[in-house]
Design brief:
CATH topology of the largest domain: Ubiquitin-like (UB roll)
Structural class: alpha+beta
CATH superfamily of the largest domain: Beta-grasp domain
Number of domains: 2
Strand content: 5-15%
Domain 2Fe-2S ferredoxin-type: 1-76
CATH architecture of the largest domain: Roll
Organism: Sphingobium jiangsuense
Protein name: Isoquinoline 1-oxidoreductase alpha subunit
EC number: 1.3.99.16
Distance between the termini: 43 Å
Shape: globular
Bound molecules: FE2/S2 (inorganic) cluster
Largest sheet: 5 strands, mixed
Strand order of the largest sheet: 2-1-5-3-4
Number of helices: 5
Number of strands: 5
CATH class of the largest domain: Alpha Beta
Helix content: 25-40%
Low-confidence stretches: none
Order of helices and strands: EEHEEEHHHH
GO molecular function, one term: metal ion binding
């Protein structure tokens, strides 16, 4: 049984230690804001914050999370008062929306590390895929949240 923290709450999952974190979050904790896209670490829909780093939760096992602090999209805010979420709304960002929780998590990690990222730094940090092509609005929202 692995023990770690999800959204400031201690969790213990009775799942195989090699189970991807994504499945525990979605199936055991009902934190379905974290999305399944590819399952191979390429799309970023499943991005969560682990100890201040943007991590693809489909590619990290429960055993690798032992003792660590995981934050999901559900912890940002429930009233959209988070500046990144506000910027996403202000830029009318989502199209289909499926990838956006992962994008917001990756953007939040970037902005904690770099309060005024350039477009080049945004492109380097946000490696998530958006099939709707919202990248220009993602850059604009990150610049807005940085103000
Ligand atoms: Fe994890 Fe695509 S579902 S990177």
């Amino acid at each position: 049984m692995t023990k770690f923290t999800v959204n400031d709450r201690p969790v213990q999952y009775r799942m195989e230690p090699d189970t991807p974190l994504l499945w525990a979050l979605r199936d055991a904790s009902n934190l379905t804001g974290t999305k399944y896209g590819c399952g191979t670490g390429d799309c970023g829909a499943c991005t969560v914050d682990i100890d201040g780093e943007a991590v693809r939760s489909c590619r990290i096992s429960l055993a690798q999370c032992e003792g660590r602090f995981v934050t999901t999209i559900e912890a940002l805010s429930t009233d959209r008062s988070n500046p990144v979420q506000q910027a996403w709304v202000a830029e009318n960002l989502p199209q289909c929306g499926y990838c956006q929780s992962g994008m917001i998590m990756a953007a939040s990690v970037l902005l904690r590390k770099n309060r005024a990222p350039s477009d080049e730094q945004i492109d380097a940090a946000i490696t998530n895929i958006c099939r709707c092509g919202t990248y220009p609005r993602i850059r604009a929202a990150i610049r807005r949240a940085a103000r």
